[in-house]
Design brief:
Number of strands: 7
Strand content: 15-25%
Number of helices: 8
Shape: elongated
Oligomer: single chain
Helix content: 25-40%
Largest sheet: 5 strands, parallel
Amino acid sequence: DVFDRISFRNKTDFDLATKRFPSQFCNILPDIAFGICENLSNENSFFETKKQRLERRNLGIYFTQPLVCQQVYETVSNQIILLVQAYSLKYPDSNIYFISFNTDPNNKLENDNEFFDKIAPDLIGTKSKLINKLNVKEMIDWINDNVDVGICWRFHSHIFHMALGIPFWSFAQSNKVKR
């Protein structure tokens, strides 16, 4: 009685919902980024692919704040801290960027800066920085100019790295990223 229509990003969620709600009130409205993956090619890409990454080895980490709220937080945060410390020792001239996609101060559950703020004291002595950009174009340009390898949790960080030809490690926590 509250909603006229419920939209889902994928068929799996749609199928689950139509077991509970009449299908005439449900529809599938896929995330536009899925189309970017399917239509991406080196020749016709909107994004300019960098053919050679510089030897500087700057690392971009795209953490997802909802993971912080899950039970795995302690393990994951400790592993990230150890990784950043080890990376800093191996590549002392490289920068390590924690790149925030969700920075809404009113949404503590999904604000990526919350995670960085929690682990920042353990990163003293490393060249770690928090990066916030205002819009997608600015974010893409900044990643292209500054990041040489990534650790991606967030869906769109995967998309950006594929489009820009920047190598990355993928960690899938959601069905959206796994697809």
